[in-house]
């Protein structure tokens, strides 16, 4: 009997199937299978959105420089301005603010998390998003709004890559060099380039031989496809055969749009995504007025975090007054289920084994429903079977869409499932998979972004600290920070990354929202007290790392199909594992800790001098 018919699951069968699907996909090259866009492939990185404007090199001094103009830079910049630090310069390789939303203008791009929790600084800007899940152009425009409101444009440097960052001890300041010939100084520097900002291509033989048009989804070529990011028809594709390689969160959004306009669309799949209901809709201003009382966005952020993360969902069961699920969507559904099932176990029987088993049951049931949805939506039985995901819910980034599966019912949209093996070769004419060549005019690489703990290669530079030692030398045995933000030997430097802190991936901006408040408070205190340098003490870092390591709950890579969330199935080495350390009792507890730490005014672990 099909799972659709019964909803019942033989857990052993499912577990075996999960293991088979994982084994099929494991590769010895793990994360090294992907191609960096250098040399002949560098042109894939060109900015199709805005021309680079010539300008003179900058050689001045600012109080605070931030590397990265996405959400992290905008939030830190805004909080610094609120704290009275006027002299803030944001530097970005893009032509404007927006980070991922500057680059990712592919058709159908939208936010996967509800806009009321995803868009930063909504209360501060007084902006009400138009949809429950905002589309890309609206999010990009919101980034520009923040830039304007907090006066961050004036000193910003766009289309500029930082190439060096060196501490000048005599002057207690950083010197910043860029690929535009700039050499300016800053008393404080923040680094926040986002977890997914370097596009990658699959390491498929022959990729340079293709004679048609090809591009990465984060560099969409509307000149070629016609249309625009706002949703105008991709009319130039009407006579084109197009290949999409990859079926992650990006492809799930782009495929429905391509399917509407291409003559033929071939979707090359290595691993299917789980695609749950999206249920988007416009936000009613009258309803919004009822929720938008002061502090509303913080309450929504907390509520979302307490349902969208399994650990928080579980700890919420024993909370005296558990938070209400305000967002009420497919993300938070996982937490609601978990709470209800585990909450139904009498407290004295709630052993770790029972809780784990209940968690597994919820997970298996959720995935069975998602597979049943495929059967219900996709007409062709064989295509539906191939679109079903066989792994646990959080093994890959969960996806949500109400037109993706439906697209495969169009006669022009063809799923090419590679049974876990991926595309075999690119030829001058097209794409080879499972021994067959598909001739196409255009290849769209929806192949994602570099995910690595090698921050030097991600950043494109290596900070050189007070002892003349680089950050990568200092962290040769693994990343070591206080709160995930401050490193000993690197004064006045703030990292706005996810590691060794909350590491909340279900809503990345929430991490930045809390970290930016802490940074603004530290800088304000330094400036008020006349301190020229602020630095994490060696003891402060040691204590933080010991605290995280002693209570580490390392995510296992054992039972998931490979992907960027589990280092492509390769067990991290000892140094890499340091970047997987997170606050032991979950994101919300980390945020509360950080809030108290900041409000106390003592800034334990930092030294001001
Ligand atoms: P992903 O890394 O998630 O997906 C890459 C895809 O390429 C996978 O399906 C992968 O298959 C496939 N692939 C890789 N190599 C091959 C090959 N040789 N042959 C065929 N297929 C191959 O990248 P995305 O850009 O889709 O998403 C990245 C992240 O960006 C998301 O996980 C999400 O965090 C974020 N995002 C957020 C959005 C938002 O709303 N906030 C919207 C879109 C993206 P396999 O799975 O087998 O590795």
CATH topology of the domain at 61-196 and 451-539 and 584-608: FAD/NAD(P)-binding domain
Low-confidence stretches: 1-7
Number of helices: 22
Biggest sheet, in brief? 7 strands, mixed
Topology overview:
Elements lengths: L2 H4 L4 H15 L8 E2 L25 E7 L3 H12 L5 E4 L8 H4 L11 H4 L3 H4 L10 H14 L12 E7 L4 E6 L4 E9 L9 E2 L10 E4 L5 H4 L15 E5 L3 H13 L2 E6 L5 E2 L8 H7 L4 H13 L1 H6 L14 H14 L8 H26 L3 H6 L12 E2 L3 H4 L5 E5 L7 E2 L3 E4 L2 E4 L2 E4 L9 H5 L3 E2 L6 H4 L18 E3 L12 H21 L5 E3 L1 H13 L23 H5 L8 H14 L5 E3 L1
Parallel strand pairs: 2-3, 2-6, 4-18, 6-19, 8-17, 9-10, 9-17, 10-13, 11-12
Antiparallel strand pairs: 1-7, 4-5, 5-6, 14-15, 15-16, 20-21
Helix pairs in contact: 3-19, 11-13, 13-14, 19-22
Structure description:
With 609 residues, this protein is an alpha/beta fold. Strands 2, 3, 4, 5, 6, 18 and 19 form a seven-stranded mixed β-sheet that branches. Helix 9 (249-261) links the parallel strand 9 (241-245) and strand 10. The longest helix has 26 residues, at 352-377.
Give a quick set of tags describing it.
single chain; 609 residues; alpha/beta; FAD/NAD(P)-binding domain; seven-stranded mixed beta sheet; five-stranded parallel beta sheet; 35% helix; disordered N terminus; binds NADPH dihydro-nicotinamide-adenine-dinucleotide phosphate
Entry summary:
The protein contains 22 helices and 21 strands. With 609 residues, it is of the alpha/beta class. Bound molecules: NADPH dihydro-nicotinamide-adenine-dinucleotide phosphate.
């Amino acid at each position: 009997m099909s799972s659709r018919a019964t909803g019942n699951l033989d857990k052993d069968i499912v577990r075996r199937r999960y293991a088979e699907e994982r084994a099929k996909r494991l590769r010895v090259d793990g994360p090294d299978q992907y191609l960096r866009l250098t040399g002949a492939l560098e042109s894939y990185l060109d900015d199709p959105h805005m021309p680079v404007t010539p300008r003179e090199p900058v050689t001045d001094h600012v109080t605070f420089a931030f590397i990265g103009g996405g959400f992290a830079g905008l939030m830190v910049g805004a909080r610094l301005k609120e704290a009275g630090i006027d002299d803030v310069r944001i530097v970005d390789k893009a032509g404007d603010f927006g980070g991922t939303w500057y680059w990712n203008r592919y058709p159908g791009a939208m936010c996967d998390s509800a806009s009321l929790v995803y868009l930063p600084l909504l209360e501060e800007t007084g902006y009400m998003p138009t949809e429950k899940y905002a589309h890309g152009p609206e999010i990009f425009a919101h980034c520009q709004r923040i830039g304007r409101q907090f006066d961050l444009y004036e000193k910003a440097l766009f289309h500029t890559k930082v190439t060096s960052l060196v501490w000048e001890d005599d002057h207690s300041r950083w010197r910043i060099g860029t690929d535009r010939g700039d050499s300016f100084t800053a008393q404080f520097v923040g680094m926040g380039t986002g977890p997914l900002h370097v596009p990658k291509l699959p390491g498929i033989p022959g990729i340079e031989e293709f004679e048609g048009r090809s591009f990465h989804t984060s560099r969409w070529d509307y000149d070629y496809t016609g249309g625009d990011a706002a949703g105008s028809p991709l009319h130039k594709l009407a006579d084109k055969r197009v290949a999409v390689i990859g079926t992650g969160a990006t492809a799930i959004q782009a495929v429905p749009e391509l399917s509407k306009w291409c003559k033929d669309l071939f979707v090359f799949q290595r691993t299917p995504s789980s695609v749950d209901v999206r249920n988007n809709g416009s936000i009613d201003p009258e309803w919004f007025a009822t929720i938008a009382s002061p502090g509303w966005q913080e309450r929504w952020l907390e509520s979302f975090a307490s349902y969208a993360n399994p650990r928080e969902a579980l700890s919420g069961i024993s909370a005296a007054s558990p938070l209400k699920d305000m967002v009420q969507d497919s993300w938070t559904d996982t937490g609601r289920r978990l709470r209800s099932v585990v909450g139904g176990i009498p407290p004295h029987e709630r052993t770790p084994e029972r809780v784990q088993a209940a968690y597994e049951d919820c997970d298996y049931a959720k995935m069975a429903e998602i597979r049943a949805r495929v059967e219900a939506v996709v007409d062709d039985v064989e295509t539906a079977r191939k679109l079903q995901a066989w792994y646990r819910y959080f093994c890959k980034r969960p996806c949500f869409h109400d037109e993706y599966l439906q697209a495969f019912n169009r006669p022009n949209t063809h799923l090419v499932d590679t049974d876990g093996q991926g595309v075999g070769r690119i030829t001058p004419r097209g794409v080879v998979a499972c021994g067959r060549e598909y001739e196409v005019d255009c290849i769209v690489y929806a192949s994602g972004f570099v995910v690595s703990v090698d921050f030097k290669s991600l950043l494109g530079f290596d900070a050189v600290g007070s002892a003349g030692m680089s950050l990568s030398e200092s962290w040769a045995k693994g990343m070591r920070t206080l709160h995930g933000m401050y490193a000993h030997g690197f004064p006045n430097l703030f990292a706005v990354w996810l590691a060794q802190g909350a590491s909340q991936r279900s809503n990345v901006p929430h991490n930045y929202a809390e970290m930016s408040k802490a940074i603004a408070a530290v800088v304000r205190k330094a400036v008020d007290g006349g301190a020229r340098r602020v630095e994490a003490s060696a003891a402060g870092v040691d204590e933080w790392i010991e605290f995280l390591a002693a209570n580490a709950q390392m995510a296992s890579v054992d039972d998931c199909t490979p992907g960027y969330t589990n280092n492509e199935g390769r067990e991290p080495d000892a140094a890499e594992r340091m970047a997987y350390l997170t606050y032991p009792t979950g994101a919300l507890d980390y945020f509360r800790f950080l809030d108290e730490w900041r409000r106390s005014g003592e800034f334990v672990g930092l030294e001001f001098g």
